[in-house]
Amino acid sequence: MLVHVGDDRSVKIDIGLATFLAAAAGAINAAGFHAMGFFSANMTGNVSSLSDFAALGQWTLASLLAGLLAAYIVGAFCSALLIEVGRRRNVHGIYAYSIISEGVLLAVLGTADLLLPGIHSGPILIVGLSFLMGLQNATTTRISNARVRTTHVSGMATDIGVELAVLLGGARDNDDRGVVRSRFALHLSTLGAFLVGGIVGVLAYIAMGSVLLLIIAAALLAVSVPEARRAQKLSRKTMF
Asked: Which CATH number fits domain 6-234: 1.10.287, 1.20.1250, 1.10.10, 1.20.120?
């Protein structure tokens, strides 16, 4: 899932990556909202809320939402920078290392929330989660040539509507219809995984609190670490 890049990726690989990471993002986003009342991945909603609070002069809340937006952007920036440097230096598995970073940092946040009472009532946890959502979305965007976006539900819903219209009344050529059907399956799987992940995330957070973040972190590492090793093995084979 985290080895092949761009046009070398199949629809099956894209759907596997999108489903797994969208479910993780949906769980983090919904659990964060349940715990703190703010979204870590929904920047459209956050910017709208920022506008509302700024217009009403509620500067404390407006500042927090501005911080969430900034954290998301910085997370995307750090991921893209890591990938650019890694590609320039021919670091194989650089995309897997980005998800490894997400898993490690999520584990740190989850541990801090468990050991430091009341951290979830302040901005640290939700800002940290926003950073990680930006990091994850940038990684999937780069590795898939923007086909996979695991936190961008508005864009996915738009694409689903457009693709349905094309399938029902637009594309006549079988090849074109096949491409559109593939994109439709990808976006529908991503949206569904985000939704189901959100439901499970809220229920799990109610039951176990920030242990949920540790479980998601472990799942991210369980997938990304073997992918990084596989990328290294493939790179060694191509050298000989």
From this structure: 1.20.1250
